[in-house]
Design brief:
single chain; 359 residues; alpha+beta
């Protein structure tokens, strides 16, 4: 990395910090304007959430908010960097020295790839480490209760077995649920299991059934027999939360989507999400490809108009991404096409624009 690369990189890092503060601050203000009154409402018992709880919620929400707008932040930082170089008339001396614009922008695109990889891994860490904590605080703000009591959820296994939980006490120690029922396939036999209460045995890693009864489906001659643990089904409390989180698909991590795909390979929504979570981080690079070339059309003047045009390309990509993603989630388009077409269309346009830069 030479002096020029370090110089451009320093401009990009500074611009990225500015864009990050600007966009995350803007989206936080918009979220607060929409929800803060509901969070601060006084409950019927006269209690209201404290400021500390609100601050904790928004701190936990920040990584997820960042994941939604990260490619736009990268584009904005790249455009700020190029616009600063142009305003200081630093591009012309570089060209005069025999260095192409493409070479000048290498540090910016390198950062785009690094941010794409970082975005992918941040999703895995944020969902696994912070997702449940964020949901717990949100439940306190909305329901004004410390312990989460969640409603019915259905959980599927690789063999086609299904577990139903009517009430889940998510924060209980140990984890427990009420009105548990399961239809478990064991070879050619299907077994129905019911228990009024279950709890998770962390020591042995099994689900304990209190008052559990086991019945062979279709064999009325056999009476129900007692059963004290769930067998033939790879259940965990984390798996139950994954299925709950699937109601808001973009809250899932890539590893969770992979697990759900194994359990329900025919589900178009999970297949679409698998491709989408792979391709969306690439938007950090693709948006740079389409947004930066427009700034090099002229070396002087109209910088604001050119940045606005780059922003329009960004809006075009997100609109395209939204349409194709929802078509895939609803089963109206192949998951592969839904996940990859926005990147291929806008990426091809970006390669053509980047190649056409006067250098």
């Amino acid at each position: 990395m030479g002096r020029m690369d370090r110089y451009v990189l320093a401009h990009f890092v500074g611009s990225y910090a500015t864009a990050l503060f600007l966009l995350l601050g803007l989206f936080l203000i918009m979220d607060m304007a929409s929800n803060l009154d509901d969070y601060l409402d006084v409950a019927p018992d006269g209690t209201a959430p404290g400021t500390g709880l609100l601050v904790r919620f928004y701190l936990l929400k920040l990584p997820f908010l960042f994941l939604e707008v990260a490619p736009f932040i990268t584009l904005l930082a790249g455009m700020f960097t190029v616009n600063r170089l142009l305003k200081k008339n630093e591009v012309t001396p570089v060209l005069s020295a025999g260095v192409s614009v493409h070479r000048l922008l290498v540090p910016v695109f390198f950062c785009g790839f690094v941010l794409a990889a970082g975005m992918f891994f941040l999703r895995e860490v944020a969902v696994s480490k912070l997702g449940d904590k964020r949901d717990a605080v949100l439940y306190q703000l909305e329901e004004r209760k410390q312990e989460r009591v969640l409603g019915r959820v259905a959980i599927h296994d690789l063999s086609g077995s299904t577990v139903f939980l009517e009430r889940e006490f998510r924060d209980a120690d140990p984890w427990r649920a009420e009105n548990f029922s399961a239809l478990v396939h064991q070879g050619d036999t299907s077994v129905h299991i019911f228990a009024p209460e279950v709890f998770w045995d962390r020591v042995e890693g099994v689900l304990r059934l209190i008052g559990g009864m086991r019945t062979v489906v279709g064999d009325e001659s056999k009476e129900a027999t007692p059963i004290d643990r769930l067998v033939g089904f790879d259940f965990t409390p984390e798996l139950a939360m994954t299925y709950r989180r699937a109601a808001v698909p973009l809250d899932l991590s890539f590893s969770e989507v992979q697990d759900l795909m194994r359990r329900e390979p025919e589900d178009s929504a999970f297949n679409t999400l698998w491709h989408y979570l792979l391709t969306f981080p690439l938007a950090n690079v693709v948006l740079l490809l389409v947004g930066l070339p427009v700034l090099f059309q002229y070396e002087r003047g109209k910088g604001t108009e050119r940045m606005a045009l780059g922003g329009l390309f960004c809006i075009f990509y997100f609109a395209l991404d939204f349409v194709f993603r929802n078509l895939g989630l609803d089963g109206g388009l192949s998951p592969i096409l839904a996940g990859w077409l926005p990147i291929l269309i806008v990426g091809s346009l970006g390669v053509a624009l980047t190649d056409s830069i006067r250098t």
